Amino acid sequence: MDEKRSDANFKDSQELKLVQLSEIQAEEVEWLWYPFIPFGKITLLQGDPGCGKTFLILKLIALLTRGLSLPECKGEPLPPFNVIYQTAEDGIADTIKPRLEQAGADCEKVFVIDESKNPLSFIDARIEKAIIQQKARLLILDPLQAYLGEMVDMNQSNKVRPQFARLAGIAERTGCSIILIGHLNKKEGTKDLYRALGSIDIAAAVRSVLLVTEAMENKGRKVLLQLKNNLAPMCPGIEFELGEAVHFLGYTDIPTETFLKGMEKLQEKSQAEKFNKALKRIPEILSEQSDLRMPSTEIIQRLVDEGIGKRTADKAKKELNILSAKEDNIWYWYLDHPAES
């Protein structure tokens, strides 16, 4: 194939337009909560399931809809404004509204886009319409994977980027702050600072990445850490307690890197425990079978149900020298002798 293309055969898909930077008016970043959450941008708030992300967000909504000061925030509080909260995990009537009321929110300023007939996604035109109609300054999508769209694989960069570009455009055009709530993944052995569920493009596409985790020296307390910030200097984490209400306790003295190293050590310890459990359970499960064998998919599912991941199961199989063979297009794991009791 000739690498040179003639002008006659080449057609521009779009008209070229160049803009000189001297023609662009510089703008300062506006902040919902400095330096954690900017207006007109996307923020990712992540943490393990049950770590307190939702309680934290609901407390922030309560403060913002009442025009009250946010933790460690200097200057005058923002005037009360409308918020749009979308969740695919908790019931609005029996969970979210009672928690918002308990947190002291003005529920007349909190709106939900009706998804009863049509599920919402990042590229849904209703998001921008709702923000404009209600003049909302904050939109929350919880969890983010529920709103990417059922045909989008979170692990494929080419599918994730256009979705986030669309959402970032909405944030920029409306000036609305968009917070995506995501669970940390369970990638075994990872040392990734983000561990965001899905493609690394998710963490790369947002301007601020926040993490909720356990406070190291104070059991029962949580800490909000900032892992990424493209728009302002990083600041220490903020500790808070969960109870009948969220209580903020000020900045932590422990550096963020220390928290992350502690999380890595806990993860490594957990994986070692799961590996040792797999070493014990695989022979036990196979010995339960009269012929000392089981389809690989079934034994892996048994282990997954017990909290042991497939990668750990495969590693333990190799360590144990468990045999495998294919029969009638089905792979089996089997023992050459019963496990010792």
From TrEMBL:
An individual GO BP term: recombinational repair
SUPFAM superfamilies in the record: P-loop containing nucleoside triphosphate hydrolases (SSF52540)
Protein name: AAA ATPase
Domain AAA+ ATPase: 39-217
Coiled-coil regions listed in the entry: none
